[in-house]
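Hello, quick one for you while I still have it in my head. I'm working through a protein record and want to make sense of it properly. Would you mind checking whether the tokens look sensible for this chain? I owe you a coffee for this, so here goes:
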Amino acid sequence: MADGTFASARMISAYTLLSRLLGLARDVLCFQAFGAGGLSAFLWAWTLPNLFRRILGEGAFGSAFIPIFTRHLESETPERAWRFAGRSLGFLTALLVAVTVVAEIGIGIVPAEWGAGFFGDAAASRHALELVGWLLPYLVFICLVGFLQGILNARGHFAMPAIAPVVLNVFWIAGFFLVRRLEPTDPAAQLRLLAILLLAGGAAQLAIQIPPLRRVSQGRLRLSLVWRDPDLSELWRQTAPVILGLSAVQINLVVDRAIAQAVIGPAANSLLFLGNRLAMLPLALIGVALGTAIYPSLSRSHSRTDTVALRGTLSRALRVALGLALPAAIGLALLAEPITELFFEYRRFDARDAAGTAACIAAYAVGIPFTCLITILMRVFFARGEAQRAMRISVALIAVNAMLTLAFVFPMGAAGSALATSITSGIQLFWMLRVLRRGWGGESILRGRAGDWSPQLCLPPLLMGAAVFGTLITLGALASSSPTLTERILVVVLPIGIGVVTFLLGARRFDPETFRAFVGFRRRSS
């Protein structure tokens, strides 16, 4: 993998880390103020526009657009590339506005009583529908942001796209304090005002993408509503099946949360949301950062039919991702309980909520290595124009995930749904690797310029896990029955520090490839 790719991935990770830290701060504020049950309706309303973001902005539409856009740039037809980008932008904008209008009409028609059993009563259901109505327009902003980010990434610009989530979290935190000041006593009114302010955050995310777009396009990107275009037809042929596949997958995630909430109660959705937020931090820092950074390179290699370069980039990315994802997963699973107690177990978020969240974090942590590698492999399917193949795998596993959820949620509660997701991710990963291996003549993609994949890859994470576990046992024996804030901080910070040092020493001794990649990643990016 080129040095510039490592630098881009590290920069994306840095901004992502900042965004996630701000996101952690916002979650701490919101969950302490409203509690797991009180925030459930808001989280359902927030989930809907983000589902469209994953399907359209970052998913099917954006992923199908980049290979076509890159192909025209590589074939020295930039005018055609930017004309195609403008028409794609116009098509996506019209589609998003239409979806929003239809959905708003549907929300106005649905009787609030229909959701009374799910949310607790008719008043809670009416409140949830109202929040959905306010937050739905956010999908227009965030999907357009995702699409414009794809254009910038294809042109080698990663900073402003990576900053967008930071902007949203700044708006969210500032909005939280504002609404608490304007409405100090009514939680429902506070959430309504917060939903309105988040629309401003979405507009700001979109606005900051425009200046760099003007620079890279040199004024050639213009929104157009021309429908008849061969490139647009190709884009739609690539996009339509993937939309169906991604829609099924995202709907399946909603169904999983709905099953958990129906079995356990309104708090289950909040516990799963929070557990997923914390467990997906390594995915964002490792899988998404590497996948985003290498995707333009994969598209260029495929457009040049340079299979050797494509496989080399992929092999190195997978090797680095797994080398970092394994210790992240082990560490997060071991520290799930002290992290939850430190950040969330206050005020309306009680010990029972904290225990449920910690169980969800640990269950999601099982799937971190799988999801990191899947995120990278998805970019290969998209770059090779085989998105439909990847989506068929995802759709085929929907029934498996649903059955696992039903099997686990009754004995394990909300954590059962999280564990079902992790197991399904493992099955999906091995299926995708098998498909790619057949497509490359039976040769494993887990070998290449990055070197052979040795079992020694697992030794440093295991040593780190033993060190973290031993530290937690020791601190637990010394802790008081009612730990102070200082003690809670120590129980999180000390094991993390010892674990990081142990992992780096172990990697240097047993897995030099991961150690060199990690150290080189930092040096090239400084």
